[in-house]
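Trying the structure run again after the queue cleared.
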Amino acid sequence: MNRSLLGIWRTLLPIPQAIWQRQVKRGSIAARKSLSFMSADHHRVRDFVVLELPRRGEPLSPLLIANNLSLPLEKVASILDELEAHLTFLFRNESGDVTWAYPVTAEPTTHKVLFSSGEQIYAA
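Done. Tokens:
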């Protein structure tokens, strides 16, 4: 379906295709710009924590991340600092361990996710 509707109270109004396509294009350009600081190692760290949080069900230490990705601990710490500073994808607890990496979290929430592999985790 190639249409979009805007809900206003009890009414759904069609949005012209040219308008919503322009907004989607602007959004994708903004997303690319906001992620332009990320190197291949930034993506590796982010991907690892998103996959590993459900497997372990507990916060992930920088040392665990560094060991699993064969990266220096200092580099992982710097990458985690940058990801958190850019409000991108993750949050660490007071110990410096990653507690959530969007969309999953080791912290209890009202949303629980069950994967087909049997892993369970909370959703952010």
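The chain has four helices and seven strands. Worth checking whether this holds up in the mutant runs.
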